[in-house]
Amino acid sequence: YENRANISASGSLELRNLTVGDSGQYTVIISPRQQPTQQGAATLNVYVPVSGIALSQPGGDLVEPSSSVRLSCSSSGSSISFLWLNGTSSPSGRVHVADGGSALVVDNVTRYDQGPFRCHVFNPISNGTSDPVSLTINYGPEKVEIAGPPQIRLGQRLTLNCSAESEPAAGYKWTLGATELSNSSELSFVVQKSSESGNYTCHAANSVTQRTSSAVHALLVTEQSSLLRP
Q1: Three-state DSSP class for 228?
Q2: Which residues form the Ig-like domain (predicted)?
């Protein structure tokens, strides 16, 4: 306390340039003449303001539902506490905190765990919130669907479109039996022979999840006259 403390004639104590180390209980003892000694105490808490809040996440792909992710929050300040926010609410369910609240762990991630996540840090004299962090959750392909006509005439152009729920976007391949036809979500060609009837299969694949899924579209190729019959 050298050069930082001063005791006035009235007995009050003044401390200057406070540090966290000045925290503690201070006791004053008063010894009046010919009277019993009196004693009092006061507790002083010195805090460092919250600053420099940063939210980090490890690298690597997150795949639904097998992956887990750990978010870490760091901050300067003393006696700090942490509150995690997902969007505007506190995370729940498959989520728990670790490391005294400075880490958030999400187990078995789903596509609904994208965030944004924020870390709110506070102590008795200050508070602050990190910039948001959003997660990319990879999933699928799922719900593969094919749009197109079930019947077509010779000489007409056939167009089949394939779609799937997937993150990242799925890659597509079309087959008719064992024959590969196209590597696009759209299959389009002019029908030239009746043998092009059959089951057209759209194969969807996700390069990150390493998963595949498919759908089948049955097509009948007819002569023009057959379409006009009742």
Answers
A1: helix
A2: 49-136, 141-214
Phi, psi of 225 (to 5 degrees): -65, -30
Q: How far apart are CA 167 and CA 148, in angstroms?
A: 24
Helix, coil or strand: residue 21: helix
pTM: 0.79
* DSSP state, residue 33: T
Contact between residue 117 and residue 74 where contact means Cβ atoms under 8 Å apart: no
Report which residue type is found at 112.
Y
Give all domains of the chain, ordered by start, each with its CATH number. 51-135 (2.60.40.10), 139-222 (2.60.40.10)
Q: Tokens at residue 46, please?
A: 């010195």
Q: What are the 10-residue block averages of pLDDT along the chain, 230 residues in total?
A: 82 86 89 84 93 92 95 96 78 83 94 92 97 96 98 96 98 96 97 96 98 98 63
